[in-house]
Amino acid sequence: MRKYRRNHSEAKGLQFEDFVRYLGDPNHKRLDRQFGDHIIHWITYVELCAPCDIVYNAIGHHETLERDAPYILKAAGIDHLVSYPTIPPGITLYNKTKVEQYFSGIGKRDIQRLYARFQGDFTLFGYKKPDFLLD
After folding, report:
1. Own/partner pairs for 40-47, CB < 8 Å, 24+ apart?
2. CA dist list (Å): 36 to 23, 29, 30, 32
3. Membrane-spanning regions, if any (predicted)?
């Protein structure tokens, strides 16, 4: 991860800017494999969920999770076995101002590379292009 740090000699922690730079790097997969199995935590949903190969009956969104989860559990026939926990107070929905704050110190090139990597996910889930970040 040292490669992605603005200050390459800094040995502690990882800043959001470093993480964005890592995710937007077109060679990230090759780097991930150096650590063993591909790190699936940051893989795109297009790659992970194979939407062209699987016919999904439902697609949930984080913004509507409390409404989507019971429907999906019922459709799977397991709603009598498990339930989705309620979202604790203080967890907020999308906040454009907060997003702008996080990305305010990130270079346009790095933001564009990050979006290019996840553009398929934006399209797949019906999210608009975040022009306020990219322009």
Report:
1. 44/117, 44/118, 44/120, 44/121, 45/120, 45/121, 45/124, 45/125, 46/120, 46/121, 46/124
2. 17, 11, 10, 7
3. none
Name which residue leads in pLDDT, 63 or 78.
78
**Nearest Cα residue to 29 out of 44, 17, 45, 51:** 44
Comparing 9-23, 45-59, 71-85, which segment has the lowest mean pLDDT?
A: 9-23
DSSP state of 15: -
Q: Dihedral, CA atoms, 36, 46, 106, 135, nearest 10 degrees?
A: 160
What is the pLDDT confidence band of residue 77, given thresholds at 50, 70 and 90? very high
